[in-house]
Specification:
Elements: E1 5-13, E2 19-26, E3 33-40, E4 48-53, E5 57-62, E6 68-72, E7 76-81, E8 84-89, E9 95-102, E10 105-110, E11 115-118, E12 123-125, E13 134-141, E14 144-149, E15 154-157, E16 162-164, E17 173-178, E18 184-188, E19 193-197, E20 200-203, E21 213-217, E22 220-225, E23 229-234, E24 237-242, E25 249-252, E26 257-261, E27 264-268, E28 273-277
Antiparallel strand pairs: 1-2, 2-3, 3-4, 5-6, 6-7, 7-8, 9-10, 10-11, 11-12, 13-14, 14-15, 15-16, 17-18, 18-19, 19-20, 21-22, 22-23, 23-24, 25-26, 26-27, 27-28
Length: about 280
């Protein structure tokens, strides 16, 4: 394959400080793909390749132990087990997002309301009935998991059933984050960004950039755009805080906020930003 495009779609830091990056390469027409998972012992170190295959992986979740879970665009999930990556094809035409509470509570979402849960041994369907394409999943417990997607959909799982929220907001959501107190943030294309707390919806404005990531860090809520940089929630709106950083994906530990997009990775320690390319 003649590589023309290389995009960093996810970056995560584990408890040992190792940083993993999901990099997808493609040809000029985006007809052939290669996925690499790279791991860095430190943010500045040279990477080693943990995984490579001629497929298009859409998203990655990394447990604090360092174990990786991947979802592939055409409906396959992959996860590390006994030194290799296992894979299985799910009943989904597409998969777009993956996230976990723990290694035995991992969720992946995709087209036509598809949602699946990994319990440490296998994957079980828990679809949103009649749902549109789902793009992201996040939660605070196994009895409060939220998904978002097209047509302004926001739904919450209470441990047994889905409740689709009737919001006076529309849009194509691409990110969701549930805070420890139950506050839900959802963001998407065209700068749509909402906060829902105890049934009260607040629309937060401040950008028209497509928003793809939401991440709390050191008491602030950061919102990322692949092209428009990093914003922070300030009262009832968004304020640009790092316009040149790429915010297609963001992940935080108690030490760092790490972001990525296109060929850039960046890390923030609460006082200083540093950036590098992923290779």
């Amino acid at each position: 394959m003649d590589v023309v495009n290389r995009d960093c779609l996810a970056v995560m830091e584990d408890a040992a400080g190792r940083v993993s990056a999901l990099v997808v390469s493609s040809d000029e027409d985006r007809e052939t793909f290669r996925t690499d998972v790279l791991e860095y012992d430190t943010f500045e170190a040279e990477p080693r390749t943990l995984f490579t295959d001629d497929i298009s992986v859409s998203q990655m979740w990394k447990a604090t132990s360092g174990r990786h879970f991947l979802c592939e665009v055409l409906g396959t999930v992959l996860w590390q087990e006994a030194g290799t990556f296992r894979r299985t094809e799910l009943d989904a035409k597409q998969l777009y997002g993956i996230w976990g509470l723990a290694e035995d509570a991992v969720y992946t979402v995709g087209g036509e309301g598809r949602c699946f849960r990994f319990d440490g041994a296998g994957w079980t369907a828990m679809h949103v009935p009649g749902g549109p394409d789902l793009s992201a999943v996040h939660g605070r417990s196994e009895t409060d998991v939220a998904v978002v997607g097209n047509d302004g959909l926001v739904a919450r799982w209470d441990g047994s059933t889905w409740r689709v929220l009737d919001l006076p907001a529309s849009g194509r959501f691409r990110a969701v984050h549930v805070m420890p107190d139950g506050t839900l943030y959802a963001a998407g294309l065209g700068g749509v960004f909402v906060r829902l707390f105890e049934g009260e919806l607040t629309v937060l404005e401040g950008t028209k950039d497509d928003l793809h990531a939401i991440q709390p860090f050191e008491g602030s809520i950061y919102v990322g755009s692949a092209e428009g940089g990093i914003h922070v929630v300030d009262g009832s709106g968004l304020v640009s805080t790092k316009p040149k950083a790429r915010g297609y994906f963001m992940h935080a530990t108690d030490r760092h906020l790490t972001t990525c997009g296109v060929t850039q990775m960046a890390q923030f320690d609460g006082g200083k930003w540093r950036a590098r390319t992923f290779a």
